[in-house]
TrEMBL record:
InterPro entries: HLH_DNA-bd_sf, Spo0E-like, Spo0E-like_sf. SUPFAM superfamilies: BAS1536-like. One of its GO terms (molecular function) is protein dimerization activity. It comes from Ureibacillus xyleni. One of its GO terms (biological process) is regulation of sporulation. This is Spo0E like sporulation regulatory protein. The lineage of its organism: Bacteria, Bacillati, Bacillota, Bacilli, Bacillales.
Length: 60
């Protein structure tokens, strides 16, 4: 089993790219467009995962 590590910088870069894409779609298609909502939900999942990982590593 291969373990993949993500650094804070990788996370921030990935998050920023998705956020920029979501903003672009939101401005061009509207904030309630399904594609905008999809990106928003992806960003929520990424942030939740990062917070869980951060919380876990802070406890150790």
């Amino acid at each position: 089993m291969e373990v993949e590590y993500i650094t804070d910088l990788d996370f921030k870069d990935q998050y920023h790219k998705l956020q920029t894409r979501m903003i672009h779609i939101g401005l061009s298609k509207g904030l309630t467009h399904p594609e905008t909502i999809k990106y928003s939900q992806e960003l929520d999942m990424i942030m939740n995962s990062f917070q869980k990982i951060s919380h876990f590593t802070e406890e150790k």
